[in-house]
Design a protein that fits this description.
With 381 residues, the chain is α+β, with helices and mostly antiparallel strands. It contains 19 helices and eleven strands. Among the domains are: 110 residues, Beta Polymerase, domain 2 (2-Layer Sandwich); 88 residues, Hydrophobic Seed Protein (Orthogonal Bundle), CATH 1.10.110.30. Helix 14 packs antiparallel against helix 15. The radius of gyration is 26 Å and the shape is elongated. The termini are far apart.
Length: 381
């Protein structure tokens, strides 16, 4: 029985990148042996175990065979006779198909070190085409390492285009697509993720509502796209970055069309409701904050009510940050509007309901008086 550090941990160590998660492969062992040693089994598709102390994942070396549709359509064989090289051969990219033993000795059967040096994302074998999830994974890795100069190999991009031309992408669950999207949005060059998907002919199938973004990126200068990347990476969360991206992609549309598009986009996403709310509320807030001085009180109050901003200060902060990142002028109008919105919300929070009840307002009358005061504050803000 031998254990090897594999995958991303080996890759990132060689790149002098922070190693966050460590995955291990075990050669020459059985599930029974792992249980004897105190490992905890996890997962149902193939034998993966948690180390009793470190809680790192240890997987038995395995081979796989395509047996159905989608990224789950595989049957696995994990036994003591599976070699390390056989296990590595099933991986997606050469830079992810390296292993390191306890003495630091590297096993690199597919020249992953050379591809790291050449800054190339290259598939291990033609079996790459059997897993549609790899289209998203390659795009995500390019978003992570683009600032280092990494590119997708032409032959790998060709296989990604073949996957897109097949029906395999349709078998990806929306939840799995969201997981890859969320991770990619948090990488150093998130715009690259969408450019790679576009080059792979997959963007129109996975995120058709962001096709307008690619048109803009293609017409922009390199300097303009660098500025866009600087803006999006100034936002701390994937939800904020996605809301910003949606606004950038749809900035030329009318306000009404943009709101309808945001609703449709959110219906297609299988992501947390909080993320959908940030997208829809930002699309609603953007023109109001852009035109604060000329926006009527009723529209301001409508935004505040829809986004529940009186009770949720964190939502206000997130929306203002996104709209500020949408500002590409030297006037920073949105920044001042953000301050005015914060001051308005403070006034609305300070409306004393008890004092109004002491004045004799109750029931429907109390509600109408509160609404009247709120509207008055909004008109004067």
């Amino acid at each position: 029985m031998k254990t090897y550090l594999v995958g991303g941990a080996v890759r990132d160590k060689l790149l002098n990148y922070p190693v966050i998660d460590k995955d291990w492969v075990v050669v020459g062992a059985s599930a029974e042996k792992m249980l004897e040693l105190g490992y905890t089994p996890v997962g149902s598709d193939f034998p993966v175990f948690l180390h009793p102390q470190t809680k790192d994942e240890y997987a038995l070396a395995r081979t796989e065979r395509k047996s159905g549709k989608g990224y789950k359509g595989f049957s696995f064989y994990a036994a003591q006779d599976v070699t390390l090289e056989q296990d590595l051969s099933r991986r997606d990219l050469t830079i992810n198909a390296m292993a390191q033993d306890s003495k630091g000795q590297l096993t690199d059967p597919f020249n992953g070190q050379q591809d790291l040096a050449d800054k190339v994302l290259r598939h291990v074998s033609s079996a790459f085409s059997e897993d549609p999830l790899r289209v998203l994974r390659v795009a995500r890795f390019n978003a992570r390492y683009a600032h280092l100069g990494f590119k997708v190999a032409d032959e790998t991009l060709s296989l990604m285009q073949d996957i897109s031309a097949s029906a395999e992408l349709e078998h990806l669950t929306k939840e799995r697509v969201w997981q890859e999207l969320e991770k990619s949005l948090c990488e150093q060059s998130p715009l690259v993720f969408f450019k790679v998907l576009s080059n792979a002919h997959a963007l129109d199938k996975l995120f058709p509502d962001l096709l307008l973004l690619i048109d803009q990126l293609k017409h922009n200068s390199s300097k303009q796209n660098q500025e866009l990347n600087k803006k999006i990476t100034s936002l701390p969360s994937a939800a904020q970055r996605l809301a910003w991206l949606f606004c950038i992609a749809h900035k030329t549309l009318s306000i009404l069309t943009r709101n309808h598009a945001a609703q449709k986009f959110c219906e297609q996403l299988r992501c947390p409701n909080s993320t959908k709310d940030i997208i829809k509320n930002t699309v609603h807030a953007w023109p109001i904050l852009q035109n604060w001085e000329t926006t009527c009180g009723a529209e301001k109050l409508s935004l505040i009510g829809q986004a529940d901003l009186v009770r949720s200060g964190h939502k206000t902060t997130a929306i203002i940050a996104i709209v500020q990142a949408l500002d590409f002028t030297d006037k920073h109008l949105e920044g001042r509007s953000g301050e005015k919105l914060e001051k308005l919300l403070l006034k609305l929070r300070n409306i004393d309901h008890k004092a109004l009840m002491d004045q004799g307002f109750k029931g429907g009358e109390l509600g109408r008086e509160i609404k009247r005061m709120q509207l008055e504050y909004c008109e004067k803000s």
